[in-house]
Design brief:
Strand order of the largest sheet: 1-2-3-6-5-10
Largest sheet: 6 strands, antiparallel
Order of helices and strands: HEEEEEEEEEHHEE
Low-confidence stretches: 16-24, 139-152
Number of helices: 3
Number of domains: 2
Length: 291
């Protein structure tokens, strides 16, 4: 009797373990994962492109954070106001999301209320800005689609599957203001570092300019005692040319410092506006359903 109870208990334990395992282990969807740091065109003939730069999911606190970067292959400016996001999830979870614009056309999308077992989410990035270079282009050609990524119109879609490698339960969730201010402070630090490097470059340019002046003086002195005046003239001309180049480098570096100092002030103003509420942040939206 005891042996039968032991066997029954063991079987029950195994069944419960298997049941819990199926609940804990992420379920695979039929969609292929989109790759990180892979540019996708936002439309068949558009020069605008977008890449997903990072993704992480806190399974304990039910939220996901995804980073994107939007750019233009032709170098044309893209207004953040023309970029929109749509998110769809599998199942019937009540998930909300916020798309927060950051510096240099970077965006962070935060999905809240995303419980384990979601299987997959689809994030679509839409570009409402008109690509004037394609107004007369042939729009009948079909675009090639990448595995795990679909694009159509002025948009590109990314799939994120639920998997163990996605989970980071140390991931902290910030408010919209905190995300924006953190990013702006990072941009300020980068500009300050560039200014420091530019000032070091200016010192190097100035030192080289002094060397060029010395070489010119020495070449003029040496010219008094040599028959080959062409050689002396070449040395003087070369030193003069390099001296002028160093002066141009100094002027350009100084202009670059001024631009970066101005940008830092604008970032600092934006931080103040975000804190005061003058800078309006986007609303939260309900996700659609991925079928």
């Amino acid at each position: 009797m005891a042996q039968k109870l032991l066997v029954s208990g063991t079987l029950l334990f195994i069944m419960v373990g298997l049941l819990l395992g199926t609940m804990i282990v992420p379920r695979a969807s039929r969609y292929a994962d989109s790759k990180l740091n892979s540019d996708q065109a936002m439309g068949d003939n558009a020069s605008a492109q977008v890449r997903m730069t990072s993704k992480a999911y806190n399974a304990e606190k039910d939220f996901m954070v995804v980073d994107f970067r939007v750019s233009d292959s032709n170098g044309s400016p893209i207004s953040e106001k023309n970029i929109r996001f749509e998110v769809k999830t599998m199942g019937r979870q009540a998930v909300t999301y916020q798309a927060v614009p950051l510096v240099d056309n970077n965006f962070i999308v935060v999905l809240s209320g995303l419980k384990p077992g979601f299987q997959a989410v689809q994030l679509t990035v839409l570009n409402k800005q008109v690509d004037t270079s394609t107004l007369n282009a042939d729009s009948t050609s079909a675009s090639d689609s990448s595995e795990g990524t679909t694009s159509g119109g002025n948009s590109a879609s990314f799939i994120i599957n639920e998997k163990q490698s996605l989970i980071n339960n140390k991931l902290t969730k910030k408010t919209q203001k905190q995300y924006v201010i953190y990013d702006l402070n990072g941009a300020i630090q980068k500009n300050e570092k560039k200014i420091k490097n530019l000032r070091a470059n200016i010192k190097a340019y100035q030192a080289q300019a002094i060397t060029d002046q010395s070489e010119m003086k020495q070449a003029k002195k040496d010219a008094q005692y040599t028959v080959n005046q062409d050689n002396a003239s070449d040395k003087i001309s070369s030193a003069q040319s390099d001296y002028q180049q160093q002066q141009d480098n100094i002027k350009e570096a100084q202009k670059s410092i001024q631009r970066k100092q101005k940008q830092i002030k604008l970032y600092q103003k934006e931080i103040r506006d975000v804190r005061s509420g003058k800078y309006k942040l986007p609303n939260s939206f309900q996700t659609g359903r991925l079928k």
